[in-house]
Amino acid sequence: MTRRLVSVLCGLSAAVLIGGWSGLLVGVGTAVLASRYLSRLEPAERRREREQGALDLPYAADLLAAALRAGLPTERAVQTVSAMLGGPVGRRLAAVAGSLGLGLTLADAWRPMHDLPTGARLAGAVARSVDSGAALAGAFSRLADELRTARLAAVEAAGQRAGVLLMLPLGLCFLPAFVLAGIVPVIVAVLGDVLR
Prior knowledge:
- This protein is mostly helical.
- The chain has two domains: 2-41; 47-151, Type II secretion system (T2SS), domain F (Receptor-associated Protein), CATH 1.20.81.
- The protein is 86% helix and 0% strand.
- The chain has helices at residues 2-18, 20-40, 44-69, 74-85, 87-101, 106-109, 119-132, 136-195.
- Helix 1 (2-18) packs antiparallel against helix 2 and helix 3 crosses helix 4 (74-85).
- 24% of the residues are buried.
């Protein structure tokens, strides 16, 4: 509803600013383009869920590994971790625990984790562990380390990108000032001496 209202207001604004029949055509085009653009934006609730899931997933993998190493069966370990975490990861882990309780295979039971961006990696680690016979706790520990490393790399890249983006306004402010205060007076003085 809000997206449609914003699209209509954008189109109406363009139509009023331009005026006439051409304004009407531009307004309709603006409304259509704004509607398409706004429909592609990720809803805020989904973005928060994705970000929270990305933050919680390494902890969930560590907790699952610790619970499995402590000797808990997989279903009980998943139930315990889901109760401790809550949030998007906890809800999906509760669905996984329910599926395991119903007797689904490990690979099928972990399908609810595919909704989260990095949750598919968790489900993939389970599938690989089932296929290869490797210890599930070790797979969870490795995955937690990989997720933390990827998160750290993303944060560092964002920090470096911010530093570069901060230099742009600085350069746009100081370069003209340098030209006007440093170079132009020298050119004027030289031209004044040459033209005399």
